[in-house]
UniProtKB/TrEMBL annotation:
Residues 50-69 are annotated as: Disordered. InterPro entries: Oxoglu/Fe-dep_dioxygenase_dom, Pro_4_hyd_alph_FE2OG_OXY. PANTHER family: FE2OG DIOXYGENASE DOMAIN-CONTAINING PROTEIN, PROLYL 4-HYDROXYLASE ALPHA SUBUNIT FE(2+) 2OG DIOXYGENASE DOMAIN-CONTAINING PROTEIN. It comes from the Eukaryota. Pfam families: 2OG-FeII_Oxy_3. It comes from Penicilliopsis zonata CBS 506.65. Residues 178-276 form the Fe2OG dioxygenase domain. PROSITE patterns: FE2OG_OXY. This is Fe2OG dioxygenase domain-containing protein.
Amino acid sequence: MEQQSQLASEDLGQEQPDFVNRCRWLKHSIERQRQAASFTCGGTILVGSDNKEKTEPPLSGVHSSTSAPCPSSPVSILWATCNDSTARKLVLPLDGVSQESSTPVLQQLVADCDPATFGRGQEDILDTEYRKAGKMDHGHFATSFHPADFGIIENVERILLPSISTATDNQMPFRKLTAELYKLNAYSGPSGLFRKHVDTPRSKHQIGSLVVCLPSAFQGGDLVVQHNGQTVVFDWSMRSSNTIQWAAFYSDCEHEIKQITSGDRITLTYNLFVTEPVGGAFPLSNGIINPKTLPLYSSIETLVGDPSFMEKGGVLGIYCSHAYPHSSSMAEEHLPGGLKGSDVVLYSIFESLGIEVSVLPVLEIEGEYNSDIPSFELKLRSYTYPGQDLKGKSLQGNIGRDRELLSYDSSASDLSGDECVERRWRTLFFSRRVCGIQDLLRTATKREISTQRLEGALVGTGLHEYDTTTFGQDMEPEEASVWRSCHLPGITWITEPKHQEMAFSYIAYGNEASIGTQYSCAAILAVIPPFDRR
Ligand SMILES: O=C(O)CCC(=O)C(=O)O
Ligand SMILES: [Fe+2]
């Protein structure tokens, strides 16, 4: 018997200092992320050949969740110099065939740039030890590239904008980002560089910079962005010959461009401003943001890659940090597509690591959200199965036969309702062979467990629209058939509930009729597979 309970607690991964420490570490990483938010993000756009039908840029709101971003046509740059009014044209990437896409024309562009200065106080300084580059002001050239065509601006908006909260900007409820072309920069090998600096904001509404690296081969030239002791390196050299690569960061980020050892690194810089108009929600995995550029990515990747973290799998629960109308009639349409800030960061990191992740509402039960772990301090405790006497049953047997249990479960429809649900919970707890939240919710509906008070968070089967209902005095509110849900015990909660929405209101008939409202909070649930399956 002693051996059994030890096995059970090991299998649950709970009450082990290591597991608790890792959860704590994840909690602190997320808190840091929420405080600092993401300070930078970046991505890649492939360049297709300049075929007859120009590739149409994607429209916001019509990306399928798996679609790759639309490739760009080759990028044209047109310019003229003061001495010579003839317009010149360069097409990148170089095709080596047409004159306008040849090395001599690229060299002409580099030669026509002015030596780049940098701002120090009120002065513009020319010091090639500090910045060795050429630049062309936006009034002197035109380009066929626009970042709005590729969803770059909307994506940057979602990652960087939510944490901007100056008094002026907070008065803009539907604020969005606009990018204004600023300069073209040319850094050439063997010695082009720009040492550590902070960009000078051009107005009080400027919140950051966007750098777009055009397809032109070079070596070296890493862009290194730093913020509050965190560093992200954009190494664009490897794919420089045939892709457009970009990065956006807050104005207060220090950044530098390491030495370009060969080739020409041609970038367009844009100033990012906060403006008023309305934006819509669109799916996350649109391939525009590369989750690997998000500062939290490597922490979560390390955690998930560690065999001793949730070795048998488990569910991480993270309450959303921003408020969403998750019980409105539009919720299904707007979530998870409309997640913002650290929420979109976490969601897309889990998704890109192949982890099943969903946004679902969790219902309060008597003012609490997670009856099994009420403190949120990660004082994890072993789950005890209420109303179920496990004495005399061989847990060891169940643990050793997860697969069998699973297949037994999936054919459990011939079992009576309660028995079926009990089997499922046991599968979750003792085998941790979780197939996914949706799978669990689909089969273990509220109706099946209505006669049982199980522990665990009461998770909605979907983003239900707010509704009203009537039910009898003896019924528990969550038993009302308006809010389909089920108790999911064993979720490892990493953060606390933050923004409640009304889930449903009810009229409870009794000696006196009363009206009550139940609330729910939206949470990100990530199903971590057992180590041998991730
Ligand atoms: O070219 C780049 O990567 C960025 C240039 C830059 O930092 C600037 O122009 O301020
Ligand atoms: Fe800069």
